[in-house]
Specification:
- By secondary structure, the chain is mainly β.
- Helix content is about 10%, strand content about 55%.
- It has an 8-stranded antiparallel beta sheet with strand order 1-2-3-4-5-6-7-8.
- The radius of gyration is 17 Å and the shape is globular.
- The N and C termini lie far apart (about 45 Å).
- About 20% of the residues are buried.
Length: about 150
């Protein structure tokens, strides 16, 4: 895979903003920058993996937010090893100041015993909860191939 100088600069800028956990002052006047094939990893205090965010493309905005296309986010158990859920969405916004991920597009969250889909969600690393905004559909796996479909739960 070839990386262009612009992509490398965008990745370095995104990494620096995320590492500082705040927008860089120099970006206030800079135009939005774009990167492709971006991966961001969030750790908790003890160095355990909390979330892994993979994107097809990411655009860094002057306010430090990152507009993400083609989101695939793995949310880990407190042990930092086991993936508890995978969230996919066409488009979302990553708020670097607090680490929140928000989307108003169609999304799907897959867990070992359930699949949740809907339109729009919010996730915060502090409470580790995915909040569904609308059009919720939940499929519970009750074992032995039995599936219970619940539509419109809020």
């Amino acid at each position: 895979m070839k990386l262009r100088a612009g992509n490398i600069l965008a990745l370095l800028t995104i990494a620096a903003a995320l590492a500082a956990d705040r927008p860089l002052p120099c970006l206030a006047q800079a135009p939005a920058q774009v990167g492709t094939g971006v991966r961001y990893v969030s750790h908790v205090k003890l160095g355990r993996l909390q979330a892994e965010i993979l994107e097809d493309s990411a655009q860094l905005l002057p306010d430090g937010s990152i507009v993400v296309s083609g989101l695939s986010m793995n949310i880990f158990e407190p042990d930092g090893v086991t993936v508890s859920a995978r969230v996919t969405a066409d488009k979302c916004v990553y708020r670097s100041a607090g680490g929140q991920v928000e989307s108003d597009s169609v999304f799907k969250m897959v867990q070992s015993s359930a699949v949740v889909s809907g339109v729009g969600f919010k996730w915060s690393p502090e409470d580790r909860v995915v909040r569904v905004l609308s059009s919720t559909r939940v499929e519970l796996d009750r074992g032995e191939g039995f599936r219970l479909n619940l539509k419109g739960i809020r």
